[in-house]
Write a structure and sequence with these properties.
The complex is a heterodimer of chains A (314) and B (345). Chain A has 314 residues and is an alpha/beta fold. Helix content of chain A is 28%, strand content 25%. Chain A has an 8-stranded mixed beta sheet, sandwiched between helices. The longest helix of chain A is centred in the middle third of the chain and has 17 residues, at 121-137. With 345 residues, chain B is mainly α. Chain B has a two-stranded antiparallel ribbon with strand order 1-2. The chains are: A alpha/beta (314), B mainly alpha (345). The interface between A and B is medium-sized, with 29 and 26 residues.
Chain lengths: 314, 345
């Protein structure tokens, strides 16, 4: 086991649901997810909307809902993440940049909530000064300090949310869908903030469904398909007609991009709990082998990348 | 805990917006006032019609059990206008009300307005103290129950609330009376002043001593609704995104509740507490009756039972005003204190 900033091994997240009276059902959302992030590295987890990617962020921070079941292991700087260590690390070493302004307390003034909880007045002063400095860097005037969240424009809210992550000097930042609904300029701006942080040696986990955003800023991209990570590719693989991409889904995804081929593949992703014992991409795969329909392939190392496909296991 | 409440209320109210919107508030209140006048006219006319249709005979009440001749009854009837058409009666009465004349109470033999003011003051002390106590206590219990959700403490608070919520008011009042004044003998069993003393000679403590039990009963009854509401609201807020984010930023436990929970639950809870004026009044009627506390509730019951029409109608008007004031205050808080609604438009 190599020691990175964050190592995630075989993490699965499922929910216990009641169906028809008292029958319990395990609804799998994320299955067998492994990835690692190094200092100063941006790793994007790319998957369709509503596929449960955010739960990965919540799992790392230890804020999953009570009825969620978490399996697998996660290490931060080699230290096993358990509920206690997560509680200690979150907000200090590990910070979250949430999706939207809804993640701010609607009745608390911006500056007060960015600063967060303080134990003493000196600490408050110190943090207040720091918050002012960060706000200035992000072009947020003094009047923003006393605003309530509903008074922020979309762009301001975005910058405030990024600021919250910077206040504690985190080593690892988890950005959960930071780009939806942004125009080109605002998108560029947000991605620059992330790049900036990475240049300061912060590791970033970017959770997104926006392939353009991921391609612009990430170093590695983990492709999320039907609850499985099917490939972790380097950013350079998405060049040269995608010939270095390994998984057929990733290839299809790349060729579907408007400025590549705009070639669409028919069909849709299977629901994650429909898959039990076969490759998640079975229905659409152009080169299936015998065991594809009887076994789920494991995520294996292939050069400096990872791939979940029997074609590469031999 | 109290400090948190007060500082939060002050912060929210005085953060600038309330006073900037003075004109808006005045306009709002003027609008309310017009609506109130219309409401009041409806209440007056409707209750007058109901009383007129009822078998209550004010003449009989007036002469009580004295022996009078049919001629005298007929003279009284024509003097009071009992046999005139209802339209004439209503117009006459409305005309008198506009001039501030609510008539004379038949059982107290005094102007209705004096009886009501006298009784209302006694009731206001009772209602206000129990309103404050039940509000604060209910809020605190609700926050604790929501914070300690599904634990023993939560269950205890929840069951307490369910029992009070489903038990009849007069029954709880009787039990309180039995325990504290009969078995334990800590408090007198009723009346506003000790028997045999004039009301102006009563000391403050004698008066307070008689206030405690009814106020206590009304308080513990009022706790249920506000506590259950606060608990539910807090649990709802705790599952919202901003709570999750606050957790993700390292806030935990009680400080999370203090910083974000109370802040977001306080305003709706206060609003609800103002909206409960009508229940407070209803509760006071029953509690005052059980404790024979000389308040407006008891006067209402006597007026009803003993056919004192002028007093009954007067009380109807005043209780309408009372409930309306509560609802308006709730609206003001809802519309002008919450920064989102205050500056949103």
């Amino acid at each position: 086991m190599s020691e990175n900033l964050l190592d995630v091994y075989n993490v699965s997240i499922s929910f216990i649901q009641y169906v028809k009276g008292l029958n319990q059902k395990n609804l799998k959302v994320i299955s067998d997810l492994s990835l690692s992030i190094d200092e100063g590295e941006i790793v994007a987890v790319l998957g369709s909307s509503g596929s449960g990617k955010s739960l990965l962020a919540h799992a790392i921070l230890g804020i999953l809902p009570d009825n969620a079941l978490l399996n697998g292991e996660m290490y931060y700087k080699g230290e096993l993440l358990n509920p206690e260590s997560k509680e200690r690390l979150r907000g200090d070493d590990i910070a979250l940049i949430p999706q939207s302004v809804n993640f701010l307390d609607p009745l608390m003034k911006i500056s007060e909530q960015v600063i967060g909880e303080c134990d003493s007045e000196e600490e408050e002063k110190e943090l207040k000064a720091k918050q002012r400095k960060i706000f200035e860097k992000y072009n947020l005037g003094e009047e923003v300090d006393d605003m309530y969240p509903f008074q922020l424009s979309g762009g301001m809210a975005r910058r405030v949310l990024v600021s919250t992550a910077l206040l504690s000097n985190p080593k690892l930042v988890i950005a959960d869908e930071p780009t939806p609904g942004l125009d080109e300029a605002a998108l560029e701006e947000t991605l620059n903030y992330l790049r900036d942080m990475a240049n300061n040696n912060v590791g970033i986990l970017l959770i997104t469904h926006d392939i353009n955003a991921a391609l612009k800023v990430a170093d590695k991209i983990a492709i999320f398909y039907a609850g499985y990570v099917i490939e972790i590719a380097n950013i350079d693989d998405f060049k040269n007609n995608g010939e270095n991409l390994l998984h057929p889904y990733t290839k299809a995804l790349y060729h579907a991009l408007p400025d590549v081929d705009f070639k669409l593949t028919e069909g849709h992703q299977p629901l994650r709990d429909e898959i039990n014992d076969y490759c998640p991409y079975l229905d659409h795969c152009p080169h299936c082998v015998d065991k594809c329909d009887s076994e789920i392939p494991k995520l294996v190392k292939h050069g400096d990348k990872y791939i979940r496909c029997f074609k590469y296991t031999e | 805990m109290y400090f948190v409440f007060i500082s939060l209320i002050i912060e929210i109210i005085f953060s600038g917006g309330l006073f900037l919107n003075k004109n808006k508030i005045l306009l709002f209140l003027a609008n309310r006032f017009v609506r109130f006048i219309i409401l009041l006219i409806f209440v007056i006319v409707l209750s007058f019609i109901l009383i007129d249709m009822s078998p209550i005979d004010p003449i009989k009440t007036y002469i009580a059990n004295k022996v009078v001749s049919p001629d005298q009854v007929a003279a009284l009837q024509s003097y009071w206008g009992v046999n005139e058409p209802i339209t004439v009666k209503i117009v006459n009465w409305l005309g008198n009300i506009v001039q501030g004349n609510l008539g004379n109470s038949l059982i107290f033999r005094a102007p209705v307005i004096d009886v009501i003011l006298d009784r209302f003051v006694a009731s206001l002390v009772l209602m206000f103290s129990s309103w404050v106590i039940s509000g604060v206590l209910g809020f605190v219990l609700g926050i604790i129950a929501g914070f300690k959700r599904d634990t023993f403490v939560d269950k205890l608070i929840k069951y307490y609330c369910y029992i009070l919520q489903s038990a009849p008011t007069f029954w709880i009042a009787l039990i309180v009376l039995m325990i504290f004044s009969i078995y334990l003998g800590w408090f007198p069993s009723g009346l506003g002043v000790p028997i045999g003393s004039l009301s102006q000679n009563v000391t403050f403590f004698e008066w307070l001593n008689r206030l405690i039990l009814p106020a206590f009963t009304l308080s513990i009854l009022g706790v249920a609704q506000i506590a259950l509401y606060t608990r539910d609201k807090l649990i709802g807020e705790m599952s919202k995104d901003y709570f999750l984010f606050a957790k993700a930023r390292g806030e935990t436990g009680w400080s999370l509740i203090k910083r974000h929970g109370i802040r977001n639950v306080l305003l709706p809870a206060i609003t609800l507490q103002f909206l409960s004026f009508s229940e407070l009044f209803g509760g006071a009627v029953l509690v005052e009756q059980v404790f024979t506390y000389p308040g407006i509730g008891q006067a209402a019951v006597s007026a009803g039972l003993r056919s004192d029409v002028p007093l009954l109608l007067g009380i109807v008007i005043f209780s309408a005003i009372f409930v309306f004031v509560g609802n308006t205050l709730a609206d003001v808080i809802y519309n002008f204190v919450d920064p989102r609604l205050r500056e949103g438009d």
